[in-house]
Amino acid sequence: MATSTKRKRKKGSENWRTAKGSDIHELYELSVQDPEGEIGTIDRIWNDQRGRVARSMREDFCGTAAIAREWVKKRDDNMAIGVDLSTDVLEYCRNKIETGLDDTQADRLQLIEGDVLTTKTDPVETILAFNFSYFLFKKREQLIEYFKGVRDQLTDDGLFILDAYGGSDSFLEMEEDRDLDGFTYVWDQSHYDPVSGDVVNHIHFKFPDGTKIMKAFTYEWRLWTLPEIQELLLEAGFRDAVVYWEGTDEETDEGNGEWTEVETGEACEGWVAYLVGIK
Ligand SMILES: C[S@@+](CC[C@H](N)C(=O)[O-])C[C@H]1O[C@@H](n2cnc3c(N)ncnc32)[C@H](O)[C@@H]1O
Questions:
Q1: Which residue, among 151, 234, 138, has the nearest Cα to 195 in the 3D structure?
Q2: Which domains does the chain have, with CATH numbers?
């Protein structure tokens, strides 16, 4: 969802891709995920809030479990659990584990095919809900139920880390594209209803040969705001709920990938923030 950078790729270049030869899960990871950067942010939040880093984590709505896979590589005593409903995406993830992790790393990563509302795991230090996946809970009661379940499954000093997006552009029906390595990622905010707050967003992929994968992913969400999410975290029993805001790169005037705890944000066109539910 970042600002577009237009770059032309010549036919025949190394990473030339086509719709037919592409896997949507791989394209998704290349487009919107940065597991090393995310773990840097998680470690920073942990150091800020608890003066140490976490070892055990659960990645809810894990999809390809890119962060969980990186987590078990990061430290020899890190363990991770990934939870997702989709058999298809977990299959992709299992292949990635087989080819990308050694046995000791793979042994410290458990995948659960299940619903985050009903899956119960032993307490972990940190639970993640990234790429706005919990926005699919459109009613306050549902979101509180999910948040309560998360809180119950954290250790006594646990932290729940989730992200959110917003800004004036998030209320518009618009498309944004970014040229990546051999393909174009399209974020399509196809529908926004100001009465309910409901949005329908699609991800499309386009290729240099003119082929396309339209609606590779579709998200029907409620566009929750930061104060609403903070209030619901407190209602669910978290002791505190704080917001981390991204700093600005002075040269480009864009986000610099460094988040710090703040009391106030900035009324910009588009932002991504992290929230932390503190148990
Ligand atoms: C937006 S993707 C997020 C993937 C990944 N967390 C990320 O950061 O990019 C949402 C994922 O949530 C999963 N999902 C949707 N509803 C779920 C539920 N109730 N319980 C568990 N997983 C769910 C979908 O199968 C999908 O893989």
A1: 138
A2: 28-167+224-278 (3.40.50.150)
